[in-house]
Amino acid sequence: MMYKVLVVDDEKWVRKGIVFKLQQLNMPYEWIREADDGRAALEMIDADCPDIIITDVKMDDMDGISLIRAVRETGLDLRFMIISGHAEFEYAEQALNMGVMGYLLKPIKEEQFRAVFFKLCEDVRSSRERQQSEARHEMQIKKTRQLVEEKMLNHVLSQSRAQHGETFPKGLLEEWGYADAELPEHLRQFDRADMKYTLVIVHIDRSNYNSERFHYDDLGLIKFAIKNIAENLLADRPFLIGNNLQDLNQVHILLQAGPSDESGLNTDPFIFRLFTTVTKLLKITVTIGVSSPLDRVSEELYKQARAALDLRLIKGNHNVFYAKDAFLSSRMEIPVEQLSLLGKAIELSDFRNVEVILSELLANKKLKDASLLDFRLVYMEIIRTLMRISSQQQLDLPDSLDFDFLNMDVARHFDRTEDLVQYLLTTIVTLVKPGHSLPMDCSAIIHNVRSYMVANYAENLTVKELSRKFAINPNYLSTLFKAETGETFVKELTRIRMEKAQQLLRLTGMPVSQIATSIGYDDVQYFYRKFKQSFGITPLEYRNN
């Protein structure tokens, strides 16, 4: 470690002599600086705080004792050595009472100076190590707390059994064995029977992936920043924040319900401030879905906030949507004529016309002004049309379709109707005419897919997940991937993981089991087998060689 030392004496040649002695000790200094009295020293301390101060006692303007007293009053943890030509007991007593670790008389004896200075350096070193250890401990406690809170939040939002009053969060934590843990203030305030709750889902728009400023491996840091921003804005309110463990692009925020206007619309200023602050500071776009206030914590909160978020498909992303607007009744007629034209285009394998009709059905102005229910009805009519044709032509559905494709769930994975149209189109092509290529920039798509794989290799990646992220049918994506890279998705993911494993084995002392987990393998034995298949030797043999 490096040391910062400040020498304070009103005699220039004394200061120079002390600096020379310090240099002769050959210690690792970040800097050695000089001040000619206590007041000048205080200004230098304020600008760049030293670790050790070597000072005279008697000086004009501000003497050494006054300097030490002024520093102690600031609370700074600095070490002092006094070098003085005065042997008065009063000075020595005051110095010792203020924690000075050495009081040397001029002329300075080399061995005394060396011994006291080394003692000061050792005290600085041990203090830094103690502070770093305490900081690591605090960080670990905070990380553990956040993981527990995240687990709790995802758990209660997936349960039909409501949690309220005394059962949330205290009762739930007791169920999980955290009865002895004192609740943080932001959770303790939840423990009230009259509480109403709101769930806010912050969705990182996938359009950010097309920005040069955004990289896939930044996603974790961005979510961390969003959570910090939310915590700062919610400093005086009960809240619970965690990642959505089902969607890497989302953060959940459960909080005490804010005010509403006479019409029932949520007017909580936190939501607007969160939206604008994230956009301004992180230079990304997000879409926010907000539930209605409920007096129970359960899956219903999540359903409402997610339904609000689904409005982005018809209204556009980078906005704030409320559950109240998601459950409006249907207001438009089913476009029977366009659906009939879609069926004919599919039967004729006229994929250009299929794309045009899908866009007209899902992105027309009438639908943008309609309700979420209208959008769902149109989507399901498109699926029924495709099912009818597949039945007539006896097409093999299970091998070609994502199961979620058959209901509205698949649509939740897209931010724009254009992406949903592309997903539907590639699914129809895969179903009706396997092997047919559409006019799209395949190289760019697969490049983005591979970049995402490299940044997220430790996650439980599947073709199904990536197909939704990049708006392409899973089978179509698999075909494109093999054509562009010459490898299957699974082989390429394994190669990326094995290269990372090699790097960790070479450059770190991490246990093999920890390396396996860190690159996406929960089964250590399976990791051993894959590593040996890839390189012909075991991980330990690779490390030892």
Automatic annotation (TrEMBL):
One GO molecular-function entry: sequence-specific DNA binding
Keywords from the UniProt entry: Cytoplasm, DNA-binding, Phosphoprotein, Transcription, Transcription regulation, Two-component regulatory system
Stored CDD domains: REC_YesN-like
Modified residue annotations for 4-aspartylphosphate: 56
GO cellular component, one term: cytoplasm
Record's subcellular location: Cytoplasm
Matches recorded under InterPro entries: CheY-like_superfamily (IPR011006), Homeodomain-like_sf (IPR009057), HptR (IPR051552), HTH_AraC (IPR018060), HTH_AraC-typ_CS (IPR018062), Sig_transdc_resp-reg_receiver (IPR001789), Tscrpt_reg_AraC-type_HTH (IPR020449)
Domain HTH araC/xylS-type as annotated: residue spans: 447-545
Major localization class: cytoplasm
Biological processes annotated in GO: phosphorelay signal transduction system
Keyword Transmembrane carried by entry: no
Domain Response regulatory: 4-121
Xref: PANTHER family: HISTIDINE KINASE-RELATED, TRANSCRIPTIONAL REGULATORY PROTEIN HPTR
Protein name: DNA-binding response regulator
Species in which this protein is naturally found: Paenibacillus agaridevorans
